[in-house]
Amino acid sequence: MSPYSPLAESVPTQERILVIYTGGTIGMQQHADGLAPGGDFTIRMATALNQLPLAQQQSLPPYEVISYTTLIDSSAATPLTWQQIARDINDQLTAYAGFVIIHGTDTLSWTAASLAYQLQGLDRPVVVTGSMRPLESPGSDALDNLQGALQFAAKPMLQEVAIYFAGQLLRGSRAIKQHSEAANAFASPNYPLLGERVGDDFIYYLSRGLGLQQRGAPRFELPDYRLVNQGEIVRIALWPGITAWQLEAWLSDSRVKGALLQLWGAGNLPNAANLLDVLARASGEGKLLAAISLCPQGSVHLGAYAAGHGLSDAGVLAGDDMTPEAAFTKLAHLLAQPLTLEDQRQRFLTSLVGER
Ligand code: ASP
């Protein structure tokens, strides 16, 4: 079986979609110690798509599949995984009309957010998808997700990294995994859908996309993510009773260069001077600190309550309504580049790819 869809061999690659299979439940098969990524994805994907009604099969764009040599459960993904996918897309960019990335769902929204920062100014679709159940399992959501991802990857006006899942197209830098079992596993809590499946149609809402704002050639930033692959960034979610020594245990470590804080509601933390002292000390040492809310919906407004008042003075950057994925991968992306602290801070506060 060739890695091409039936039509693909007769059209130039520039009209094909490149499907990159990285692993995840969608391609998993039962092994002795449980589900693990399985091979032969090209033929398995073609077999699944062959089950679609003929008219839907015929409306699929021609595609070609490559599989990573090491297939992973996405719980094992690291910043180096994000880097590898971005570089592979960059290497093949002009050879294909669009890209579909097949990925495990556990960290799919992290990869999508990271790709968005690395592929700034993207001039064609990159659609990330996966499924909650393996391709061959009865009632699997895999076929719908593959079909929708291919359909949206063939829309030239979609010019950003998006996630297609359960009939919905979400901005990659706005998505979270919201359900551990349901097919409708992803949400975009603070930004409307970029598109959706309506019957047999796949509708892209052009006015919500980045495509209209893209100017000139892609301006990809592909820094060396090895610089942020050894625990340089931490994520600290508050809990009632958090103490200064606990915060300090993370932030005083010289290996830590940045931290994402997840605060209460609109951006509050306990009204305790010693907590703010720890934060001020860390920012004074040049660490990049950012805050978002523990609530999936809404935004932080640092200083709206007395309980969060000292945060800006302590140098903490407001992450507004960003998802944890978007805020964390943005810190990683900025810290992987040789920018001054001021530039890093300024770029964090700017919307780079519609993430805030
Ligand atoms: N553990 C799997 C993964 O993220 C879950 C999935 O794909 O749904 O690779």
Instruction: Write down the secondary-structure element order.
Output: EEEHHEHEHEHEEEEEEEHEHEEHH
Instruction: Give the C-level CATH assignment of the largest domain.
Output: Alpha Beta
**What are the bound molecules?**
aspartic acid
Main β-sheet description: 8 strands, mixed
**How would you write the strand order of the largest sheet?**
4-1-5-6-7-8-11-12
Specify the number of helices.
9
| CATH homology superfamily of the largest domain | L-asparaginase, N-terminal domain
Rounded radius of gyration (Å)? 21 Å
How many separate domains? 2
Within the CATH hierarchy, at the fold level, what is the topology of the largest domain? Rossmann fold
Structural classification: alpha/beta
If you average the pLDDT, what whole number results?
Answer: 95
The CA-CA distance between the termini, in Å, is 44 Å
Descriptive report:
With 356 residues, this protein is an alpha/beta fold. The protein has two domains: 2-208, 3-Layer(aba) Sandwich (Rossmann fold), CATH 3.40.50.1170; 228-348, Rossmann fold. It has helices at 41-49, 54-58, 79-92, 108-118, 142-153, 244-251, 273-284, 324-335, 341-349; strands spanning 17-23, 28-31, 34-37, 63-72, 98-102, 126-129, 161-165, 168-171, 176-177, 186-187, 195-198, 201-204, 233-237, 258-263, 288-293, 317-318. An eight-stranded mixed sheet has the order 4-1-5-6-7-8-11-12, sandwiched between helices. It has a four-stranded parallel sheet with strand order 13-14-15-16, with helices on both faces. Helix 6 (244-251) links the parallel strand 13 (233-237) and strand 14. It is elongated, with a radius of gyration of 21 Å. The structure holds aspartic acid. Aspartic acid is lined by residues 23-25, 73-75, 104-106, 130, 132. Aspartic acid (ASP) binds at residues 23-25, 73-75, 104-106, 130, 132.
